[in-house]
Structures are given as C-alpha cells and as structure tokens.
Amino acid sequence: MKAHRTLLRTWDRLNEAIMVLAGILLWGQMVIVNIEIVSRYLGRPTTWVAEISSILILWIPFMIGGWVLRKEAHVKMDLLIERLSPRSRALINFVTSLIGVIVMFIVTVAGFLTTLYWIGNKTPTMLMLPRSPIIAIIFVGSLLFTIQFFIRALENLNQWRSGQVREMSLDKFESSL
C-alpha cells in the first residue's frame, strides 16, 4: 500500500511538472506572438512565429489533459449525477473512466502509429522542422491521459466498494493551484 501511495505521489508530481512546463510554453507563446505584432508594426515580420505558435497550440492541451482530469477540473454534465447517491456517482464515474481508458488508449495507439509514420519527414515551411517530434505529443499526452483515466477508474472502484466517496470541492481544487 505504501508503494501504491508513493507511485501516486510521483505521478501527481509528474503531472504538476508537466502543467508548469505547459504554463511556461503558454507564456512563451504569448511573448513570441507579441514579438510578431511589434515586428509587423515595424515592417519586419518574422517567418517563424506562426509555425511555432501553431505547434504550441497543439502541444499545450495534450500536455495538460491528465492534470485537468486529476483535478476534476474538466467540464462535466453533473445535473443528473448530483441527484444520485455518492456510491452511485462513484459507480458511474468508474464506468465513464473505463470508457475514457478505452477511447484514450485508441488515441494513444493512433498517435504512436502516426508519429512512426512521420519519422524522417519535415514540415513544408520555412523552418522545415521534423514532423515526428511535433506529432509525438499526441502519443505522449494521450498516454498520460489514459493512465490518469485508469487511476481515476481504480479510485472510483475503491470508493464504490468501500462506500466512502471522496469529493473534490471547488475550494480544494483552487487551493491545489
């Protein structure tokens, strides 16, 4: 049991580190877009900002998906579910998490195969960046999301079995930020 908790703490730290990195990338994106705005105003537009910015737009959501799920900060349709008993909610969350595992596993495999397919190819742009590292974030982010859905499924199964349901309040979420 202690190893299980240590593994979960390590996983949470990894998710936090990835979230920090995604935040840094978001700030970086804002900086380079502002550089582009100033450069265009001065009549010297850049050739690389649009490409780097579009890559970051792809990367950031895939990086933070697992973190958002862990914090239960995603959009939920909870009008009906809130009327159920905590135990029934845990069961429904278990089932939906299993569905999430299956769907994200399919996306993970597709992301892996797509990454392999694009090895050796470059983007048809001025920078001519290799495509596979750009697309690899789909595989990596989907894998992180799959693992988080699996952890969520196990937590909800344990809550359903024990009858002790852990609720993540908005206050607890905000304090974890």
How would you describe this protein?
This protein is elongated. Helix 1 runs antiparallel to helix 2 and helix 3 runs antiparallel to helix 4. The longest helix is centred in the N-terminal third of the chain and has 40 residues. It is built from 5 helices and no strands.
What is the strand and helix layout of this fold?
Layout: H1 2-41, H2 49-70, H3 86-117, H4 131-162, H5 170-176
Number of helices: 5
Q: Give the number of domains.
A: 1
Q: N-to-C terminal Cα separation, in Å?
A: 27 Å
Radius of gyration: 20 Å
What structural class should be given to the helix and strand makeup? Answer: mainly alpha
Biggest sheet record: none
Beta content: under 5%
Per the principal axes of the C-alpha atoms, what is the gross shape?
A: elongated
- What pattern of helices and strands is seen along the backbone? HHHHH
The beta-strand count equals: 0
Rounded mean pLDDT is 90
Low-confidence parts, pLDDT < 50 over ≥5 residues? Answer: 169-174
